[in-house]
């Protein structure tokens, strides 16, 4: 909000690049987690599908967080498109901000539960 002119445009472009990168990083991390659960199923039960369903709150919050991250990026893209077309973007920006707030709260819960789950596994 405090930036003006070219500096603001650069910061906004960087924000958009980071958002896109975070979405792909989240998808990659979730893919690795599902592959790890499939391998765990093979080791434990000789069936790769046996451990794919989430078995704790940490497991449920991951896919929900990924959906929220996708929504944040979607609403961010919508905001950027409306700005480029010189249309009103207040609603899209509000959706982007609210989805971001919800996602950040879920990220904190997910990380804390992951830490506790790590101690349980060890």
3D architecture notes:
- This protein has one domain (5-121).
- It is 83% helix and 0% strand.
- The protein contains three helices and no strands.
- α2 runs antiparallel to α3 (90-121).
- It is elongated, with a radius of gyration of 18 Å.
Strand content: under 5%
Please estimate the helix content: over 70%
Radius of gyration: 18 Å
The helix/strand series, from N terminus to C terminus, equals: HHH
What is the mean predicted local confidence, pLDDT?
Answer: 92
Q: Layout of SSEs?
A:
Layout: H1 5-45, H2 57-84, H3 90-121
In short:
The protein has 122 residues and is mainly alpha-helical. Helix content is 83%, strand content 0%.
Annotation keywords:
122 residues, mainly alpha, elongated
């Amino acid at each position: 909000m405090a930036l003006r002119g070219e500096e603001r445009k650069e910061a906004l472009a960087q924000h958009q690049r980071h958002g896109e990168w975070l979405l792909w990083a989240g998808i990659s991390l979730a893919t690795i987690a599902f592959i790890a659960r499939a391998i765990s199923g093979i080791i434990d039960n000789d069936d790769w599908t046996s451990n794919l369903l989430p078995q704790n709150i940490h497991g449920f919050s991951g896919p929900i967080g990924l959906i929220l991250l996708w929504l944040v990026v979607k609403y961010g893209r919508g905001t950027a498109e409306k700005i480029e077309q010189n249309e009103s973007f207040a609603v899209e920006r509000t959706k982007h901000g609210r989805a971001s707030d919800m996602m950040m709260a879920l990220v904190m819960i997910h990380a804390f539960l992951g830490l506790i789950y790590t101690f349980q596994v060890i």
